[in-house]
Specification:
By secondary structure, the protein is of the alpha+beta class. It contains ten helices and ten strands.
């Protein structure tokens, strides 16, 4: 409340028009003296092209600032969607621990804007995990200034469609950047689950695999340990799962079929995929037609070091 009051007093807006965002050590009181000292100077240095500085300022254990921007033309006017975010550890749905700020000069009502945001975050920020842990702080904000004069509220118009695509692409790019910069991460891994009874079932399987310490450490070691992946699928809570019907691939290399190692699989083929910096684990459940995909990373020595030394 005090930080909101300070900003409101300095900018001449109502206190409830100030939105606070914070990450840090959970449970520790945030000192407000630095806010009182810094807000006047920060206001005097605001500028339209200050995205890079702002993205760097919100970094915590992030190693790089995270930015994305897309533009399109409608009614002869350029429309831009630009966003920044921070996040590196304690990352899993729903969003935590991350902050994302996306802004556009398109003109759109609040209800439509909220719908656009909810659609965009589901396959992006709500489909990533670094370590399976969550925090008390996360947020994703989409702001529309209307300065371009281009109305994008109607999703059936070319402008409305282009706007929604731009927002989706910005959110996906930022979410991908979070996983790429996961604490200590060396691998970017997409887990694609198909032939599930429902999307929720597919997500349950995907996250069980993604959150398995044994799978994640195998990813770090570039070890094609197919048994660890299959074991995670088996304990994901899929009712009436026929393990003999499950198939698993590393990119295009089939590693599991018939309840065990695929007959044509060779360790060399699996190793070639695992040696890559980015690849896909595809899991077919033989249960139905639903599917989902999430992004995750490996678990390295540096992840332990970063979080063991977080307060020291």
């Amino acid at each position: 409340y005090e930080t909101c009051r300070l900003v409101a007093a300095a900018t001449g807006v109502a206190m409830n028009q100030v939105l606070p965002f914070s990450t840090g050590v959970i449970g520790e009181d945030l000192p407000t003296d630095p806010f009182a000292r810094s807000i006047p100077g920060l206001l005097s240095t605001l500028r339209q092209d200050g995205w890079q500085s702002a993205a760097a300022a919100i970094m915590t254990t992030d190693t790089v600032p995270k930015l994305a921007s897309r533009s399109f033309t409608a009614d002869g006017q350029k429309v831009t969607v630009t966003g920044m975010c921070k996040g590196s550890g304690m990352i899993r749905p729903d969003m935590a621990t991350m902050l994302a700020f996306v802004a556009t000069d398109a003109r759109i009502d609040r209800t439509s804007l909220q719908q656009v945001l909810e659609t965009a975050v589901q396959p992006s920020f709500n489909s990533i995990t670094v370590d399976g842990d969550t925090s008390t702080n996360d947020a994703c904000v989409l702001v529309a200034t209307g300065q371009s004069g281009v109305d994008v509220a109607d999703e059936t118009t070319p402008a409305g469609q282009a706007f929604r695509q731009a927002v989706n692409e910005v959110c996906m790019a930022l979410a991908r950047a979070i996983v790429l910069d996961g604490e200590g991460a060396t691998k970017l891994v997409e887990i694609f689950v198909e032939e599930a009874q429902s999307v929720q079932q597919a997500r349950d399987v995907a996250y069980t695999v993604a959150h398995s310490p044994l799978v994640k450490t195998a990813l770090f070691a570039s070890d094609p340990n197919w048994g660890r992946i299959l074991a995670a699928v088996g304990r994901a809570g899929v009712e009436d799962l026929d393990i003999g019907q499950v198939r698993i691939w590393l990119d295009d290399v089939c590693i599991v079929s018939g309840g065990g190692r695929d007959a044509a699989y060779t360790e060399a083929a699996g190793q070639a995929v695992m040696d890559k910096d980015a690849f896909t684990i595809r899991i077919a459940l033989a249960q139905g037609q639903a599917s989902t995909r999430i992004l995750t990373c490996d678990l390295s020595y540096d992840y332990v070091k970063i979080n063991a030394e977080y307060r020291t």
